[in-house]
Design goal:
With 395 residues, the protein is an alpha+beta fold. Helix content is 32%, strand content 17%. α1 packs across α5 and α3 packs across α4. The longest helix has 24 residues. The protein is globular and about 80 Å long. Bound molecules: flavin mononucleotide. The site of flavin mononucleotide (FMN) has 20 residues, from α10.
């Protein structure tokens, strides 16, 4: 079992990450994690915060001489912006009489953010106490944890990808995953494989920004080379599709998740949507299919095809042209609070989605293959692969 935790506020001193259950002997370094953190920081439509931060996770435990020890991997990730918020986010009480002080109470609740339910639930009279943790700054910590997961999955040939399908109603032309130029996605300002659509997405983000508004969209995450049989049909909370859906839905502002094309196929006939199994000709690659409409899962288990999940992310709640709202103290009409914010968070959401799916897969992978060292996990994995062909031919 792989467990992980994050801690940290958006403008606090930094983020803390603990990943536990990674076997010993995995090559891991800070630079690898930094590559993924840098991918999350990019994307057209992001606010000024990303110009301040240069995310780098510092490994404090669980790694020695470039290899994991099997002990919990502890990391810290500094918030450079904390320098501007030291007093407003101080651990000790602060009394600052300046009416423009950053630490002043926030009471103008934003519809669409965690402000109102968070303040009610935790008994706060200052919305900052909620928004600091509800902020997607926390997703940097998820990407650091996800990078550790990806490093282990890579040892077994599993690779994570993601690309943007739509932003603000502009759709990329549909493309099979195996024809996508992944370097072009990495180089695209909106992480979209279709350069013509990418230009229109950028224009849509500009138009939303001009109007003081924000824009959302959809993203696809793909895990390639996933072995058959991760997850289980035997109990609801072990089903891999359910675990992936929960993980993706937990990303800030995600409002819908599908495994494979999901909504696009449910109104077709059964004969049009199942993925027909091909006759086995290659013992090393049994159980091939020409299509992957089930997104690589059947019965709550991976089926040997790439695991594909899509998610829809809503437009951001904080707008330079704020919606009317009400004041937390009086209940009277005010304009919702604004503080520096993204206009579109869809491009980085793909990188966060990769991390979340990797964390689910690594958990399911270790559940299936176990092992306290990578060598032991590999022995178990290779032994299992020898058993997955047609029963009379390969056993
Ligand atoms: C990468 C990323 C960046 C985000 N940036 C912002 C932002 O700058 N401003 C904002 O109001 N919401 C932003 N959000 C969304 C909020 O965090 C989210 O809407 C809020 O926590 C409420 O949660 P909910 O939308 O899931 O209900 C971002 C989300 C992601 C994934």
């Amino acid at each position: 079992m792989v467990r992980w935790f994050t801690a940290g506020e958006s403008h606090g001193e930094g983020l803390i990450i603990i990943v536990e259950g990674i076997p010993a002997g995995l090559p891991l370094g800070e630079e690898y994690i930094a590559t993924h953190l840098a991918r999350r920081q990019k994307g057209y439509g992001r606010g000024g915060r990303m110009l301040i931060e240069q995310d780098h996770a510092h490994i404090m435990s669980g790694v020695r001489h470039g290899q994991t020890l099997g002990s919990p991997i502890g990391m810290t990730l500094e918030n450079k912006d904390w320098a501007n918020w030291r007093e407003a986010m101080a651990v000790e009480p602060v009394d600052n009489p300046d009416p423009d002080w950053k630490g002043r109470r926030i009471t103008r609740i934003r519809p669409g953010h965690a402000d109102l339910p968070g303040a009610m639930k935790y008994g706060f009279d200052d919305v900052r106490n909620v928004l600091e943790r509800a902020s997607a700054r926390e997703t940097a910590a998820r990407v650091a944890a996800g990078a550790v997961a990806m490093r282990l999955l890579e040892e077994f040939g599993i690779r994570m990808r993601s690309h943007v399908i739509s932003i603000g109603g502009v759709f990329a032309s549909p493309q099979e995953a195996d024809t996508i130029d992944w370097q072009a996605v990495e180089d695209s300002p909106v992480r979209c494989a279709d350069p013509e659509a990418a230009e229109r997405m950028v224009a849509e983000i500009d138009a939303a920004k001009e109007a003081g508004d924000t824009t959302g969209g959809t993203v696809e995450v793909i895990a390639e080379n996933v072995p058959i049989g991760l997850g289980s049909h035997v109990h609801w909370d072990r089903k891999i599709d359910g675990r992936v859906a929960q993980a993706l839905m937990s990303i800030n502002a995600v409002k819908a998740v599908s495994i494979g094309p999901g909504w696009d196929i449910v109104n077709q006939r059964g004969s049009q949507v199942q993925d027909v199994i091909e006759p086995v000709t290659d013992p090393d690659h049994p159980w091939q299919r020409k299509t992957n409409r089930m997104g690589g899962t059947e019965g709550g288990m991976t089926d040997g095809m790439p695991l594909v999940a899509r998610f829809a992310i809503k437009p951001i709640a904080t707008m330079t042209n704020p919606l009317p709202s009400v004041d937390l103290d009086t209940g009277e009409i005010v304009q919702a609070h604004y503080e520096r914010s993204d206009v579109c968070q869809v491009p980085p959401a793909g990188v966060i989605g990769e991390a979340m799916v990797a964390l689910v897969l690594v958990d399911a992978f270790m559940e299936k293959f176990g092992g306290d060292s990578v060598q032991e996990t590999r022995r178990n994995y290779e032994g299992y692969l020898k058993t997955v062909g047609p029963r009379k031919l390969y056993q």
